[in-house]
Design goal:
Strand content: 15-25%
Oligomer: single chain
Radius of gyration: 17 Å
Shape: elongated
Number of helices: 3
Strand order of the largest sheet: 1-4-5
Distance between the termini: 25 Å
Number of strands: 5
Structural class: alpha+beta
Helix content: 25-40%
């Protein structure tokens, strides 16, 4: 999931279960990372609770703009996918 943050240049908040249910083990490791994949807050495999972090969305915007993702996109090729909802 950190790779998704980096490749899409967006912060990621991941909430993962812990414990065992019906023989299925859940691995935990909930986290918040920034658009570069840097960990801002995290829980281990057996920790529960609430984690918070401050995200600098302006920094994320500048970082994303440096890659040219939106500058080079061609929305006319995928019309409805590019429309605001």
């Amino acid at each position: 999931m950190i790779g998704h943050a980096v490749s899409n240049v967006v912060p990621v908040v991941a909430a993962n279960r812990i414990g065992v249910e019906n023989g299925q083990r859940f691995y935990g490791h909930s986290f918040i990372c920034d658009e570069r994949g840097d960990m801002l807050a995290e829980f281990g495999a057996n920790e529960t609770g609430v984690i918070t972090a401050t995200l600098d969305l302006e920094q994320a915007r500048r970082h994303r703009a440096a890659f040219g993702f939106f500058r080079d996109r061609r929305p006319e090729l995928y019309k409805r996918l590019a429309e605001d909802v």
